[in-house]
Specification:
By secondary structure, the chain is an alpha/beta fold. The protein folds into two domains: 154 residues, 2-Layer Sandwich (Beta-Lactamase); 214 residues, Rossmann fold. It is 33% helix and 22% strand. The chain contains twelve helices and 15 strands. Strands 9-8-10-11-7-12-13-14-15 form a nine-stranded mixed β-sheet, with helices on both faces. It has a six-stranded antiparallel β-sheet with strand order 3-2-1-6-5-4. Helix 1 packs across helix 2, helix 1 packs across helix 3 and helix 9 runs parallel beside helix 10.
Length: 401
């Protein structure tokens, strides 16, 4: 049971003063020793059990020496893929695909704010009442989003999306049941042949992971340009690789570099393939035009509830960028994107590929799709038959299916 007289901030400040009194950098072991002595010698904790004292020691140490404070153990846990902080006392994690609430909590809102400021400082970005939203990444590639308390009514919000230390390959996805070996081989052929592939799905459906996996099939002698809003892709094995990341404006409102600018400049870099991490807005126009001007084999992702829903979203985003007739927009999309791979979650909350569809053309001013693989409710996997694959329409360049 928590000690009602325990003043976390007072103890933390006491330890900080002890550390500062050394007048030099001291090791983690020395800091830990100071904290242990402070807790064990403080009469406030005299009647507390051993487990509670250990928790206090760990909390204070993490708060002082770790950028993520009490979140550090979850950030280091290989089984945790997401950390969600909804104010100081509401912390949830996703561990092995299951979301759970944890007992840990920040002692004060100020402590949580300090963690968020530390993250922002490391990437030279500010978060305050004038700039209440932070998008950043940690040194290990984890993606971070934070919202200041003047926007988040229940207190500051912090979300950390972690990425596995070891890159996931297609064999692992097959083992996990995300995709079948038949569909994996099919997609491998498409990537190698230079098909433009778009990966759609809801939040946390595995789009970025799947894009990483598909990129392993890009021929190693090609020049690849990767464009992201916040760098998170882990493309390996390609020597001629360029990575570019968007940049927010500074406090004076200057220096912004957006996705549209990066896509346009990438076209002057002689790319064989352009990979756009995720399209969210007007940049879809530039991406589609790039796909239609000889840059075969491009890959991208976007949020959508189905392949049809993704196409509707692409149309809407295209309209935001240009006042084109809808028929012309659909023609551009149908010509630019060859395949949509859609990901979702099944009844067991497992990430899976639910559909693979071909964009087969335009009919009656509508984009037509041909379903190549579909989800089978009986075995919980995507499947296909010879009837599903239209071999006349889908002519893989020089490859047999």
């Amino acid at each position: 049971m928590e000690n009602a007289e325990y003043d976390y901030r007072k103890l933390t400040e006491k330890v900080r003063k002890s550390i500062n009194s050394f007048g030099k950098d001291i090791s983690d072991a020395e800091v830990l020793n100071i904290i242990e002595n402070s807790v064990l010698q403080d009469p406030v904790f005299e009647f507390d059990n051993y487990q509670f004292k250990i928790k206090i020691i760990d909390d204070v140490f993490n708060s002082i020496r770790k950028d993520l404070a009490i979140l550090d153990p979850y950030a280091r846990d290989p089984g945790v893929s997401e950390i969600m902080v909804n104010g100081k006392n509401q912390i949830f994690i996703e561990r092995y695909g299951v979301v759970e609430k944890v007992e840990a909590g920040f002692q004060t809102t100020e402590e949580l704010e300090e963690v968020i400021r530390r993250i922002g400082a490391k990437v030279h970005r500010e978060i305050n009442e004038m700039n209440p939203i932070l998008d950043a990444r940690l040194e290990d590639g984890s993606r971070v989003n934070a919202v200041n308390k003047n926007i988040a009514l229940g207190g500051p919000i912090l979300t950390i999306r972690k990425f596995p230390e070891q890159a996931i390959d297609m064999d692992k996805l097959i083992f996990y049941g995300t995709v079948t070996s038949e569909a994996a081989e099919f997609l491998k052929n498409l990537v190698q042949a230079g098909y433009n592939i778009f990966i759609s799905g809801g939040t946390s459906s595995g789009k970025t992971t799947f894009l990483n996996v598909l990129s392993n099939y890009i021929p190693k002698n090609e020049r690849v340009i990767v464009i992201e809003d916040s760098a998170e892709l882990q493309i390996k094995g390609i020597e001629n690789l360029i990575r570019m990341e968007c940049r927010n404006a500074n406090v004076q409102g200057k220096g912004q570099v957006d996705m549209r600018q990066l896509i346009k400049t990438s076209l002057r870099m002689r790319p064989n393939r352009i990979i756009v991490g995720e399209v969210r807005g007007e940049e879809v126009l530039d991406m589609i035009q790039a796909m239609n001007t000889g840059h075969d084999g491009s890959l991208s992702t976007g949020h959508g509830n189905s392949p049809e829903g993704m196409l509707n979203r692409l149309e809407t985003m295209f309209l935001q960028a240009a006042n084109f007739p809808i028929e012309a927009i659909r023609g551009q999309i149908a010509e630019g994107i060859d395949i949509i791979v859609h990901l979702g979650r099944n009844r067991d909350n497992k990430r899976i590929v639910t559909e693979i569809v071909e964009i087969s053309g335009i009919k009656d001013a509508k984009i037509m799709i041909n379903k190549l693989f579909g989800y089978d409710q009986n075995n919980g996997l995507i499947r296909t038959t010879n009837d599903l694959i239209n071999k006349e329409k889908l002519k893989i360049k020089g490859l047999r299916i």
